[in-house]
């Protein structure tokens, strides 16, 4: 095997005291193959109970832990499911979804790895993920193209699942239709008699992938009606919210879809402090159906999102890993319904 | 090398079309060593520009991606920093801390991997982490003991950093003093003249590691005073909050430290709906200093937590990786100060 200098060169050489399966074999007085059979619990090979015990005893004594990378090199694949870690702090809804998904994949004996990219995008990110040789990759949002999918598959990934607005060639798709969220909110405001409608678009850059289709959904729903749509950029702080509330008053907006509940709570407070009556002067609708929205007075109306269940997604991944040749599946995975409370 | 059957046995055999560095070497007409030198950007070896270009061209043509596991097997270590993924959904404060840490470690060329354990605890979890041969492990909360640290170190981890209430033998420690949060809140309520003080303890089990020391801090601060402490278990839903508000009235509690801002917002609303004037009848203090607490009326008093900066923690990890023999460092890393608003 070729000897490669450590990368980066400044690291000291590794300590060589890490026990290997050869050490275990020597101590137990068996072959390395037997060690592997015993520790990987291979049933195809019959090994006597005393030998098994001797191997386990030796492994314990030496503190030997199998090496997942070596095992995956031999097997040609790992049990690693990779997801890029989100660049923005998680909302409670997505955070819960992620916990569920990790639990469900764990029960199917996959190891979930959230990859913190540190600024890599698109195909460069896909190449970095491929270096870890994951058996499956789940990409939330529009973070990968057909070329990236191909790189991953060439590197041994059996399944790539995207959770974006559109399917990507070669990948399974759970379509997250964020336009539906905007359509839903706009339809509700229109039905409540609102005609001068504002749409909050967060200035935080990581949220654009979601805010753009939500805005498009509003425009779509109100096309060919007598309603107007005004885009309202908002950074998540109180000062900006106060300025935006004043602007809503000047423009005489009578309804606002505020991107999500957190932005809605921020803007609703600013509107109230600016003297607006909610919902008489201005109706406010959020999205995500957070518990906190119910604690406000008036209670916040919202769009309830139905994310795919972690279990369903885990089962899709497992199916795809077992049948890597099957045609990519496409499912629509984001349900959106208005929860009408007191703010609209 | 011993041939090990795939685990689990039900997976179909891996497709063997994954291009290897040998394929790149063949196409470029150079040795595998040269391919490795070029693609790992090794500066210790001089290789001509045309040869470099030929190797890059061949790698591109074949869609070859280096194999991180193979590289780490050769080098004896990886650039992987492993963190167990939290079992409970992240709060916004911790979620932001995690984003910062991932960014900072990414800039130091580490790959951050959040490991979804799926129910493993203590030393069993440490063994599972060790199988991935991380170069460093960061354990938030009290999730590892000295034996687990030893397993990781024997498996090649150069640094283990704990973010718990107490140092662990063999590991670097950023001490998170959650007792200080409780002391701080209790001292504030006492100074505001409150003597019958309730402490909310979330019933959600994943939060116990934080709620227990916070409660202990309250008891500690009020020991040898004329104040009483009542423990108030609370599940995070409106019905439980309504029942607890009635109980606060019956017990004539005049001050509540509500674990964090989310529980405080929930309870404060229930107290208001139950007819309590805040803060005249009951003062309420949360913790975490969330923006949303400022949007309520009255504005929520809170304990502001100062988590360690992601950059400082990343630098501690990097230092420890570079000097694996150095004595473990211990730093106190959680600052706590009261932010007095209108609810107390």
TrEMBL record, chains A, B:
Superkingdom: Bacteria
Matches recorded under InterPro entries: HTH_LacI, LacI/GalR-like_sensor, Lambda_DNA-bd_dom_sf, Peripla_BP_I
Key words, A-Z: DNA-binding, Transcription, Transcription regulation
Short name of one Pfam family: LacI
Domain HTH lacI-type: 19-75
PANTHER family according to UniProt: LACI-RELATED TRANSCRIPTIONAL REPRESSOR, LACTOSE OPERON REPRESSOR
GO molecular function terms attached to this record: DNA-binding transcription factor activity; transcription cis-regulatory region binding
The protein, known as: LacI family transcriptional regulator
SUPFAM superfamilies for the chain: lambda repressor-like DNA-binding domains, Periplasmic binding protein-like I
């Amino acid at each position: 095997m070729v000897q490669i200098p450590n990368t980066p060169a400044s690291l000291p050489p590794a300590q060589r005291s890490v026990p290997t399966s050869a050490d275990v074999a020597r101590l137990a007085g068996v072959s390395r193959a037997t060690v592997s059979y015993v520790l990987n619990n291979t049933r195809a090979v019959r090994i006597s109970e005393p030998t098994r015990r001797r191997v386990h005893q030796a492994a314990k004594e030496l503190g030997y832990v199998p090496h997942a990378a070596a095992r995956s090199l031999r097997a040609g694949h790992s049990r690693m499911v990779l997801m890029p870690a989100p660049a923005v702090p998680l909302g409670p809804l997505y955070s819960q979804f992620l916990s569920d998904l990790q639990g469900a994949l764990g029960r199917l004996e996959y190891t979930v790895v959230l990859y913190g990219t540190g600024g890599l995008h698109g195909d460069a990110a896909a190449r970095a993920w491929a270096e870890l040789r994951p058996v499956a990759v789940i990409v939330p949002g529009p973070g990968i193209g057909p070329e990236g999918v191909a790189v991953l598959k060439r590197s041994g990934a059996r399944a790539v699942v995207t959770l974006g607005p559109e399917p990507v060639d070669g990948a399974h798709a759970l379509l997250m239709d964020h336009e539906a969220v905007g359509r839903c909110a706009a339809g509700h405001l229109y039905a409540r008699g609102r005609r001068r409608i504002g749409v909050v678009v967060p200035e935080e850059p990581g949220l654009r992938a979601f805010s753009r289709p939500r805005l498009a959904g509003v425009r779509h729903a109100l096309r060919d009606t007598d309603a107007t749509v005004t885009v309202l950029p908002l950074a998540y702080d109180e000062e900006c919210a106060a300025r935006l509330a004043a602007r809503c008053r000047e423009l005489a907006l009578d309804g606002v879809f505020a991107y999500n509940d957190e932005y809605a709570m921020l803007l609703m407070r600013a509107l109230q402090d600016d003297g607006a009556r909610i919902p008489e002067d201005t109706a406010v609708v959020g999205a995500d159906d957070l518990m906190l929205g119910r604690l406000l007075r008036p209670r916040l109306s919202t769009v309830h999102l139905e994310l795919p269940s972690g279990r369903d997604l885990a089962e899709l991944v497992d199916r795809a890993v077992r049948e890597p040749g099957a045609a990519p599946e496409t499912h629509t995975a984001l349900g959106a319904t208005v929860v009408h409370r007191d703010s609209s």
